[in-house]
Amino acid sequence: MRGATSAKLQTKAGEVNLTVPRLRKLPLETAIIERYKRRESSVEEALIEMYLAGVSMRRVEDITEALWGTRVSASAVSGMAQKVYGQIEQWRSRKLTGEYAYVYLDGIWLKRSWGGEMKNVAVLIAIGVDAEGYREVLGVAEGTKEDAASWRNFLRSLKERGLAGVRLFISDKCLGLVDSLAEFYPEASWQRCVVHWYRNVMTAVPQGRCERSRRC
After folding, report:
1. What pLDDT digit, counting tens, does each position of 13-33 carry?
2. CB under 8 Å to 76, separation ≥6 — which residues?
3. Residue 198: what pLDDT?
4. Which of 2, 49, 89, 135 lies at a CB distance of 3.0 to 4.6 Å from 22, suitable for a disulfide?
């Protein structure tokens, strides 16, 4: 061993100074702190969550200085976010193995920061039930809107990734969705989602009758 060097680690309790011993031939490896690690995992998770929530880079720097006594640069936050994006994309494009007899399809609207402006985007989701009865998120895709073209592209990606053995699709009666199912999975049946059907009925029933039915 030849003396030691100093290193800094950012934690939830603030910045910690570490003494790293120098070895003659081998680099120092520990089971607690990874080599070249500068931030605790909980700190990185908090930074990524702030970034994905739309907090500005300048604001992130101010928050980190107030919480941990040190400013995290915008490039560091961006680098961590890109790493997460890569992991998400790898999960989204994974091959689907096995068979899923039942698949639920739905679209939800979320707000997204785009060019400094908040916009509504449609997120299409597929949840399958495997042979053992367990549910699994099969796919998530962002569409410009919940229309026939978006659903067609989404179903095509599921087909190319290996989604097979589907006997029944369950969804609302979204425009273009049912026709797209017949195009890619003609052997599968389709059933209208009872929850969506119930909500649609309630929108057409007078308010007084709705309250009376709930009491009954």
Report:
1. 455 555 555 656 555 455 444
2. 47
3. 60
4. 2
Beta strand pairing status for 168-171 and 14-21?
unpaired
C-alpha to C-alpha distance for 53 and 67, rounded to whole angstroms: 18
Q: What is the CB neighbour count within 10 angstroms for residue 114?
A: 10
**For the chain, which domains are there?**
4-90 (no CATH), 100-204 (3.30.420.10)
Burial of 36: CB neighbours in 10 Å, binned 0-12, 13-18, 19+? exposed
Q: Please determine, for residue 94, whether its predicted confidence score (pLDDT) is greater than 80.
A: yes
